Amino acid sequence: MYSDSIKHVFFDLDHTLWDFDRNSLLAYEKIFEELGISVSVSDFLTVYAPINQKYWKLYREEQVDSISLRRGRLQETFKAFDVFFSLDKIDLIADLYIDYLPNNSYLLDGAMELLAYLAPKYQLHIITNGFREVQAKKLERARIAHFFETVTDSEAVGVKKPNQLIFEHALKAANACLNESLMIGDNFEADILGADAMGLKTICYNYHKDDIPKVFLQVSDLSTIKRYL
User: Fold this and answer.
1) Is a pLDDT exceeding 70 seen at residue 160?
2) Which of 80, 92, 150, 228 stands 20 to 30 A from 1 (CA)?
3) How far is it, in rounded angstroms, from Cα 224 to Cα 17?
4) What share of the chain is helix, strand, coil (3-state, %, to 5)?
5) What is the pLDDT of residues 95-136, one digit of tens each?
């Protein structure tokens, strides 16, 4: 469908290639054990997941800063278990999480195979709202950094997806034209609507099984993307 016109493929990282949920579980298991936190990690993450998504949405919309993101998602989750920690301990948990998270390197099913399939045919790139140092470690430790010509992160650009400026920055860094570029991501608002508004073609990897308009091309597993590229 897109193979004849596309030269550059831009990927989101978390929940698109990198298995954020599995790697996050491993990071929190280590933290809870080290700090003697008695809350069940699996129960914690069930509550944490939607709260984390909410805070990332606020962060994308510039309604909270990175410190409020890191603190707020933890404080609100622990509150659901009637557990209250000092701000110093919340900051310690947040710091350990940022340290430990990129040490885990699981990719989503089919991610490595997809990249190996695409790399000989297209120039591949990353556009991420994650923090620069953390995302770089994820790419290196998952052994996929070599696939990507450029990595554009919101911390360096100063704005986050879906802001068009981050897509403009990524296109310029890649020396890519709009009509030759495709964005693949899991977040409909940030990745798909943001890229579409900019004029990029899109494929939504609907990891979260969201109800999105049928006008947008979506897949439920990464291997299906090969049909279109």
Assistant:
1) yes
2) 150
3) 14
4) 55, 15, 30
5) 999 999 999 999 999 999 999 999 999 999 999 998 888 999
Domains in the chain: ranges and CATH: 8-19+107-227 (3.40.50.1000), 20-103 (1.10.150.240)
| Residue tagged 């981050």 (tokens) | 166
What is the rounded distance in angstroms from the CA atom of residue 65 to the CA atom of residue 103?
24
- Cross-strand bridge partners of residue 10: 125, 183
Tokens of 211: 């109800």
Answer yes or no: pTM beyond 0.85.
Answer: yes
Residue 180 burial by Cβ neighbours in a 10 Å radius (0-12, 13-18, 19+):
middle
Distance, CA of 201 to CA of 167 (rounded, Å): 12
> Is residue 163 predicted with pLDDT exceeding 80?
yes
Q: What does the pLDDT look like over 50-95, one tens digit per residue?
A: 999 999 999 988 899 989 999 999 999 999 999 999 999 999 999 9
Residue 3 has a pLDDT of: 67
Q: How far is Cα 152 from Cα 212, in angstroms, rounded to an integer?
A: 26
Other beta carbons within 10 angstroms of residue 65's beta carbon come to: 10
Q: 151 with 126: CB under 8 angstroms?
A: yes
- The pair of structure tokens assigned to 61 is 């919309």
Q: For tokens 């609507």, what's the residue? A: 193
Residue 32: per-residue pLDDT: 98
- Is residue 227 within 8 A of residue 203, CB to CB? The reply is no
Q: Dump strand ranges (E) for the chain.
A: 8-11, 123-128, 148-153, 181-185, 201-205, 218-219
